[in-house]
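User: I'm putting together notes for a lab meeting next week and I want to include a structural view of one of the chains we've been expressing. I don't have a solved structure, so I'd like a prediction I can at least talk through. The sequence is below, exactly as it appears in our construct file.
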Amino acid sequence: MGKNWSADECTKCGNLIYYGGKNPCCDEPSEEEMLHHLEELDRKRERAELYILNAYNEILEQQLSSCAGSKENLIDVAMHDLDFHAAIWEASTEILPALEVQVVIDGKNNCFVTTGSSGYVEFGMKPPVGMTLPIRCWIHTHPFGSAYFSGTDIRTVSIWETNMECAYVLGGEGHYGYWNQTNPKQLEIYRNKDDVERIQTWKKGDEEE
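Assistant: Thanks for the context. Below is the predicted structure for the 209-residue chain, given as structure tokens.
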């Protein structure tokens, strides 16, 4: 095949364009496109975090208005609320492009939100800055649509077992796994909100990847 000598070089890879070729000729994003993508993703992360915090604060304000206690003394703020779970799931899969989201409710009912990648969000040995123990609830999403504990998740609850009251992993609307420190070696997995689909169990060593 001959070269199209009058064609420009590919704007992305620099190769010459052959007869009938398009410019750019490759699928690799340019530096400008990559920068735009990262900036847009940062904006989406901010929107997702704010969306979850607003949902949490709305529930918190409702509970505070109906009782005489302080914020720190409230019990079960939002953590078991399926509407709150739905807001977290929406942030993870609609505001964000199917990225994992983590929510931590600490001992003073402060809410911390972190966003991660499509298959990972940081916790483990690096808890949110300013968090007060005990952790009342740790919630994170599996945006690929399956609620279970991975080896990393099992390691997380094993490390924090004595300082974490409960945890949820969300795999979709009405599909979630529930863990609590009274049964630290099992995860109850629900489908259709109230129907127990199965119970995931583990033993020491299963947290290894």
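A couple of points you could mention at the meeting. Helices lie at 31-65, 82-95, 151-159. The chain has one domain: 31-201.

User: Perfect, that's what I needed.
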